[in-house]
Amino acid sequence: MDTPAPEIVIVPVDGRDAVVADVYARPGDGARAVVLCHGFKGYRRWGFIPHLARRFAGAGITAVALDFSHNGRVPADAGRGGWTDGGAAGMFTSPERFRRDTLAREARDLAAVIAWLRAGGAAALAGEAALGLWGHSQGGVIALLAALDDPAIAAVATWSTPAHPDHYTARQKRVWREEGALAFADHETGTALALGIEFLDDLERRHDHYAVAERAGALRAPHLIVHGERDLAVPVGDAARFCDVPSAVADKKCLRLVTGHTFGWDAATEPGEALRRAADATVHWFDTYLGGKRTP
Predict the structure, then answer these.
(1) Is residue 151 very low, low, confident or very high in pLDDT (cuts 50, 70, 90)?
(2) Tell me, what CATH number does 143's domain have?
(3) In sequence order, what are the residues at sequence separation of 6 or more whose Cβ sits closer than 8 angstroms to the Cβ of residue 54?
(4) Per the domain annotation, does 173 fall within a domain?
(5) What is the pLDDT of residues 92-145, one digit of tens each?
(6) 151, 220 in Cβ contact below 8 A?
(7) Do 258 and 290 meet the contact criterion of CB atoms below 8 Å apart?
(8) Alpha carbon distances (Å) from 42 to 10, 64, 112, 189
(9) Nearest to 138 by CA among 119, 166, 176, 112
(10) I want to staple 101 with a disulfide (CB 3.0 to 4.6 A). Which of 70, 116, 150, 292 is the partner?
(11) Which residue has the higher pLDDT, 210 or 190?
């Protein structure tokens, strides 16, 4: 069955900001959903995210791909009322909003989307609907933080996720504090971006809280870990740290692919074999643990 074009929704956050999301669903679905969290400098339509979202929808699982309010393709006035997303491909990350991003803000954004879904959302997912979380890179950290805090999350899958988001060197942090920001460019648009001191303060103040690999033993949701063997952004050893943490509560599985961190994705062609394997395993994982009929 063909999946329809996604519905664009806007979820208010704390009355000040907004999360924009694409909801992929077939008519009549709604008992199961997965929220998809993009990574650092990513967005809801980056790379393989739409492909994976459509795969979920094709399996009867509503997919909600979000843009974090301060780390995604969102304009500066998002959340101030009257703004709607026309889905323009050229929309770029607002540098002003990105500068104020923190991991705590992203965790807050995801919590707002989860609450919105449980209250009915766009796909009538209120009540006892099974909810899973998927995240890529830094988005995987945010997904795991939510699952650690919320025992009702039924399953989690992370792709190329770091064991800890604090991968910055002492020199980078020193320059960061001296200059008041850590500057770089968006690799797709060339937009000049920077993270303010607020991000670093939050990272260091809540360092133990963000140690998701060390905390993985307390995870109650089944966890699928997917990583490329030649990932240049996040070491494959981080996947091993997730897999090696003992857990007496949740099932876990590690899928290591002989590819880089993009799993062979090329936006101009059909998905490669590595992406197909990653997507197949991920859809199967959620189909199993969100109430499907397959076996783990």
Answers:
(1) very high
(2) 3.40.50.1820
(3) 3, 24, 63
(4) no
(5) 568 888 999 999 999 999 999 999 999 887 655 555 679 999 999 999 999 999
(6) yes
(7) no
(8) 18, 15, 19, 12
(9) 166
(10) 70
(11) 210
